Automatic annotation (TrEMBL):
Organism of this sequence: Streptococcus pneumoniae
Protein name: Competence associated protein
Highest taxon listed in the record's lineage: Bacteria
Membrane-spanning ranges: 12-38
Keyword vocabulary terms for this entry: Membrane, Transmembrane, Transmembrane helix
Pfam families, per database record: EpuA
């Protein structure tokens, strides 16, 4: 591969990584906003705790 093709692949890979990071950030912000407004509303960061996720998964799986 020549340098031009490698640069093209690198730029596209960087673009994909940036888009994935932005999508993850928007997902987390949506979780926090939804939990704070629609949910309990006491602590918006509580939705990010592992204990809360175990509780949610337990509700869906019946465990």
């Amino acid at each position: 591969m020549d340098k031009e093709n490698l640069s093209y692949v690198g730029k596209n890979l960087l673009l994909v990584v940036i888009v994935l990071l932005i999508a993850a950030l928007v997902f987390v912000l949506g979780l926090m906003l939804g939990y704070g407004v629609i949910g309990d509303g006491d602590n918006v960061f509580a939705v990010l705790s592992p204990a809360k996720w175990q509780e949610l998964i337990g509700k869906f799986t019946g465990k």
